[in-house]
Amino acid sequence: MTTSLSPLLEKFRAHLEDEKGSSPHTVRNYLIDLVDYERYLVERMKLSLLSGTHAAIRGYLGTLSTDHAPSSRARRLASIKSFYKYLVRQKLLPASPAKLVKSPKLPKTLPKVLPVEEVFAILDMPDLKTVLGLRDRAILELLYGGGLRISELCGLDLLDIDRSGRIVRVMGKGSKERLVPVNAQSIRALEAYLSRRGELLAVIRKDQAPEAMFLNFRGGRLTPRSIARHLDTYVLKCALTRKVSPHAMRHSFATHLLGGGADIRSIQELLGHSSLSTTQRYTQVTWEQLQQVYDSAHPRA
């Protein structure tokens, strides 16, 4: 962020980065929300962050109701709640004014999951004659083969993958490390890319990241936005009409494992979820599976 932060928000930023180990993306979103909230307090309510009230927070959320989706308002409130919890823990406030503010009701949506044949079609799209095509194939195989978050994949370094053991060391949310097994296809795709990865570092340029696993054409660490853009290209080449995000590959990984007989607690560990309820949202039982269970289990079926 280029906007200068007030002292309290600077302390909160340091808390998120140094103590909680939040990702730069998460920190940025928190601060964007809180800067906007602080502006409302100061300009409209003549209040400081420390003097914010339950009514002021509700009033702020009310100003967002016409041009912000419920999910966006819920995120703003979550940022405010987290900030005030921090102030209470620091003994700067006796209680959080946001504690009893209710979040907007959000529609319950199932994550988008691709059929297996569509996933395979996307995986086959990169041009394996080029180093960038080999890189993209390895990326797609790891997204689907390991169920990695896009931020986790972009953060991988060369030393994070044990190719012989087919294990990937991932730094997840909150700087929690986990080991993720991947399939042989992913390792083969990775080795094919690594055999030519040096081409991306052949010309010395500024901001190169020789330790990073996945590099852009200039030798820098690949970003989530770039991967999403490349994925869009491959989806278009497959003539798929649906929108496919990198996270959809993670959803598909979890759902396909569940459909193949994996138990949900194992999937929880693979995805790096601290809560089982989060994993349950990431997985969905298809109508065909329900029909098969019904036909095999009901006495009158």
TrEMBL record:
The keyword Cytoplasm applies. Its main location: cytoplasm. GO terms for molecular function: DNA binding; tyrosine-based site-specific recombinase activity. Keywords: Cell cycle, Cell division, Chromosome partition, Cytoplasm, DNA integration, DNA recombination, DNA-binding. PROSITE patterns: CB (PS51900), TYR_RECOMBINASE (PS51898). One of its GO terms (cellular component) is cytoplasm. The active site is at R149, K173, H247, R250, H273, Y282 (o-(3'-phospho-dna)-tyrosine intermediate). It is found in: Cytoplasm. The keyword Protein biosynthesis does not apply. Forms a cyclic heterotetrameric complex composed of two molecules of XerC and two molecules of XerD. Belongs to the 'phage' integrase family. XerC subfamily. This is Tyrosine recombinase XerC. The lineage of its organism: Bacteria, Pseudomonadati, Myxococcota, Myxococcia, Myxococcales.
